[in-house]
Amino acid sequence: MKKRNSLRNKIIIFYIIIVISITSxxxxxxxxxxxxxxxxxxxxxxxxxxxxxxxxxxxxIRIPQYISGVTEDLIKSGQLNIDDEKAREVYFTSVxxxxxxxxxxxxxxxxxxxxxxxxxxxxxxxxIMRSNKSTNGHSYYYSxxxxxxxxxxxxxxxxxxxxxxxxxxxxxxxxxxxxxPVYRHFVMNDLALTVSNPVYNKSGELEAVIxxxxxxxxxxxxxxxxxxxxxxxxxxxxEKSGKLIANSLxxxxxxxxxxxxxxxxxxEDIEDPQIKKVFELYEKTxxxxxxxxxxxxxxxIKIDKYKQxxxxxxxxxxxxxxxxxxxITENIHKFGYSILILVFFVILIWIKGTQYFLKPVxxxxxxxxxxxxxxxxxxxxVIRDDxxxxxxxxxxxxxxxxxxxxxxxxxxxxxLEQANKDLDEAKVIAEKANEAKxxxxxxxxxxxxxxxxxxxxxxxxxxxxxxxxAQRENLNIVKSSSKAxxxxxxxxxxxSKLEAxxxxxxxxPFDIVATVYEVSHLFEICAKQKGLYIYTTFESDVPxxxxxxxxxxRQVLSNLVGNAVKFTRQGGIITKVENLEQNESSVKLKFTxxxxxxxIPEEKLEKLFKRFSQVDDSNTKExxxxxxxxxxxxxxxxxxxxxxxxxxxxxxxxxxxxxxRFDISRDQQDxxxxxNKEISISQNEKKIKILIAEDxxxxxxxxxxxxxxxxxDVVEVENGTKAIELSTREKFNIILMDIYMPTLDGLTxxxxxxxxxxxxxxxxxxxxxTAFALAEDKEKCLAAGMSDYISxxxxxxxxxxxxxxxxxx
Length: 809
Fold this sequence. Notes:
By secondary structure, this protein is an alpha+beta fold. The chain contains 19 helices and 28 strands. Strands 1, 2, 3, 4, 5, 6, 7, 8 and 9 form a nine-stranded antiparallel sheet that branches. A hairpin with a 4-residue loop joins strand 7 (183-185) and strand 8. Helix 1 (7-30) runs antiparallel to helix 7 (329-357), helix 9 runs antiparallel to helix 10 and helix 11 runs parallel beside helix 13. The protein is flat and about 125 Å long.
């Protein structure tokens, strides 16, 4: 048997030769020496960075060293008498004025427990410190006069004995200048160090310790400046404790846990895992140079020790080598030119190669195209005994089979066309039958509803007559059952009308606020019986007067609010109205009814808006219903140019929302609702005069009744402007101020009253009463000058307690 000449083997050998050639050339040019040169450059930069860091640290700590040393010399030479109050104050203040703000305190404590010095307060203003017999051992602070003397008394910071301070103890236990451990300073809220310098008398006895205190936050800035150009990262860490002193990432070296309580961070808190790893290796091996590999490249890390008397720090500097492209730029250029040359030759070779290898393929392609155009009897010529020849034979076999299949499909297509015609006719018949069914159901529901109204009406009339207990109980059962049946019939009738396109919609002007509140009021009693709250809120840009079908809107709202009450056992229901978009003639509103009820499983949400469908359709279901309410609501919303949907979580509650488009009443086009409105009750006692500023008449009436139950004098106004006018003429014990009101809001009114010194109520307690109960709303009220805050709906007991609180003050 003749051995087949394989085209696949030829192509593989061809590309192996090309790949080996290109890889060899590229590898030699690009990777010959760049790694070693890069490593040398990185090590030089690390050495340079650490040297710069050491110089900057020395420069920072040299200042307090110099101050302490000079002061010690002046004291020993007698040029500075610490017991001379004037000389001492002038000297300490002059030193602080002439040095940078990092030196926040300069002081001296002695073995008698006396303490003197000058410090910077939180505003960086200088203050003189003094603690001796004259201050009874307390630490007194004074402002500084123009002649650098103690001025006005600033404050008493309690008992203070310098001998108990770490910096004094450290200085006392050393014979020479020493640095204290890093600590948190209570004034500066920063990490700090103290240069402690003991002062001995001629007999060698310790007389005092000079303390020059300075902050370390500037070290971060030094590290940033040094590492910025080198694109390096640097940390300064206490060697033994691993506590963080400074870093070049401008991240905090400590965190504030509580007020005036700082926690110094450590190596474990550093986010860079490489720095943590290097610190662990350094502790174990004492090595000072590391090369760590990661997904983003190699990092070169160097560790150097910085030691002073009392200071044991290490400086960790890391530089990634991926940034040093300058070293290999020349090689990259060579690499690019080589690639271009190689690509050029590869293309030439490929063109010549394909002319030989793929000539039979072109013949097969040409045959395939003609076959696709309909020349079904055409077959490919077999030229070679290789893969291309096998492909030609396979094509011819496929063509024979396909020709047979096409003939069969032609006949089948004719049969399917005939079947489709039959299906179209059946569809028309089914649609007509469905329409007839809907019309019949609508008519029958209406006919049943009429006698049911008679049954309910006559039952009510009979219940008004004199009856026995048994008769009254039976009639109440009849009435309850009739109403339940009527609700079912109403649902069927509404849905039937919608299905049969008989539901009429009327456009007429109506008050959106009144409509929504009416629906909420319908369910207030039922909600209260279940222990639920029920709120209604409006966004500020919702138009007051709109044109549409208020009856259908009320029907949708009643269905959704009723369901929310029905399926909620604790918590409550909130109805929210928002303005989604508005133009000169129309507005699109969004209504959201949120509850804290049982929630709906995600897999059952799709059943909600289908007719005759319920989430729980088992024989043991807890909640009854026809399953038509939401289907009716969906069709009503769609007829009002909107859409309906739901978001629900099992156990947490549901939020049903829908949109609807309405026309805007021209004479009320600019009227908007200013706030949410809610109602509550309470109790109180004294004869007091109280001003109520509230735009909602129902809320004003409710507040007035609550206050008059305690025999208070109450004056009502409906906006901030009138509240200001009345406050200038009459004195009140308390002002109750709504936040959002027309003409002038409560925040602005409060600010105006507070800023007018001639207003008799400029210091009167002003209490905010608003439906907005978020934390930021309370902050706004207090920032505007209000004394306190309470949210709607009012808790009666809490309301009276708040009134009593401010009356007692």
